[in-house]
Write a structure and sequence with these properties.
Layout: E1 5-8, H1 17-36, H2 40-65, H3 71-90, H4 98-112, H5 120-128, E2 132-136, H6 141-151, E3 157-161, H7 163-166, H8 173-183, E4 190-194, H9 197-205, E5 209-213, E6 224-226
Parallel strand pairs: 1-2, 1-4, 2-3, 4-5, 5-6
Helix pairs in contact: 1-2, 1-4, 2-3, 3-4, 4-6, 8-9
Length: 236
């Protein structure tokens, strides 16, 4: 069956993981200093520590929940916990509307990071001319939407799937089954790109055609290897 829908991971496929990780803390630091006062460097340092702890909690909860629901509520609640931890470290009282500020912080940082992989935006535009596009990320949809807007391609994606949008963790075939159901796409009509062969094993079990983004074809395993998104234009 012809592939008509493409699901793209974010970090490692559209964005450089290392740049994302390096740019996120200072962008958060700048935003919180503007909103709550205090020293930007202090906010940046506090955020770097708090984000490591938040990621640890994220991974623990993902393993605990497995294929069950709970991702949406956890992500929203832990985003507030992250902000409270950052404020405590800097010594500034958090605002009453901490949940709103936490979301605004993620949107602001996402819209200001400059971490796109070379040629990613042009490749997305070319792929959209032929396919319906979605994301298939472990990042929350709120962050993805901001990053894709900054890249100038948000309007090219029908839905920006993260665990919060379908309330399923990206930890097994259940995640891909959930986004396929929500997108109303048959597995045999879908392909996905990721930089992790392990995650693509899950996607293949769910019935999708799978491509691994890698500079080393030997690590592709059971999946088709591509060096960039532009390679898909001759493969699909």
């Amino acid at each position: 069956m012809t592939v008509t829908a493409l699901f793209l991971d974010s970090a490692g496929v559209l964005f450089d993981k290392d740049k994302l990780m390096a740019e996120w803390p200072p962008r958060i630091g700048e935003f919180l200093a503007q909103q709550l006062g205090g020293d930007t460097a202090a906010w940046t340092q506090a955020n770097a520590v708090a984000q490591r702890e938040a990621w640890r909690r994220y991974e623990q909860r993902m393993k605990k929940d497995g294929s069950r629901s709970g991702a949406r509520a956890f992500i929203a609640q832990d985003r507030v916990r992250w902000l409270l931890d950052v404020c405590d470290a800097v010594g500034i009282t958090p605002p009453a509307d901490a949940a709103v500020l936490a979301e605004d912080s993620a949107r602001s940082a996402g819209s200001r990071v400059d971490a796109a992989l070379p040629g990613a935006a042009d490749a997305v535009r070319a792929l959209r001319a032929r396919l319906t596009l979605f994301t298939s990320s472990s990042q929350p949809s709120l962050e993805l939407t901001a990053q894709l807007r900054a890249l100038g391609v948000r309007e090219l994606f029908d839905r920006t799937y993260g665990p919060d949008l379908v309330d399923r963790w990206k930890s097994g075939p259940h995640y891909y089954e959930a986004i396929l159901r929500d997108a109303i796409v048959r597995p045999e009509a879908a392909a996905t790109v990721d930089d992790s062969p392990e995650r693509l094993d899950w996607a293949k079990k769910a019935g999708l055609r799978t491509f691994v983004m890698t500079a080393d074809p030997n690590r592709a395993g059971r999946h088709e290897a591509i060096g960039s998104l532009a390679d898909l234009l001759t493969r699909l």
